[in-house]
Amino acid sequence: xxxxxxxxxxxxxxxxxxxxxxxxxLVAERxxxxxxxxxxxxxxxxxxxxxxxxxxxxxxxxxxxxxxxERELQQAFLTGSPPLGPGAHPVDRLVAFGxxxxxxxxxxxxxxxxxxxxxxxxxxxxxxxxxxxxxxSLLRAAGTPGDRSLLAQYLFAPxxxxxxxxxxxxxxxxLDRLADTWADFARRVAGPSGPGPADRPRSVN
Length: 205
Hints:
Blueprint: H1 4-30, H2 37-44, H3 48-55, H4 58-79, H5 90-118, H6 126-142, H7 148-156, H8 161-170, H9 175-190
């Protein structure tokens, strides 16, 4: 028989995920400013008090939403399907990571930028360090020469939300153009991804 406490925790986790999914949809459809406690409650079909009990404040909701989105991306590049996940050539995985990161900024950019600009320790926050470690491991798997730790930082810098949002909204570059140019840059730094499957199977990481 299931423990009552375990059931309550499962229900709480399920409700929290439901609220975060509702907030994500609001960001995608209307932008960050549309994400209010009332709007999330209405979208999720619950009372406003439920949202406050789960997150405490709008700031708590925003941070939880950003953490939720980051975890989804991390799960995708660590254990998801190729080319973002394992099973593809490391350079192809690197390119897929950059494209996924830019796509994330399209939806969650204001949240990411707020976190970047408000934290004195933004260069050492866990999501950034995980991304840098991932990039460095792909460079190592690809046999990229040089200081891979610094190269990983150079590759990640153009993916910072503040820069991408400036290039997109102020300078007028399309996100597709930014992603394509970053992919070209990544391939120049990391090296070729090797012949396609018609020639021989790609190596895997």
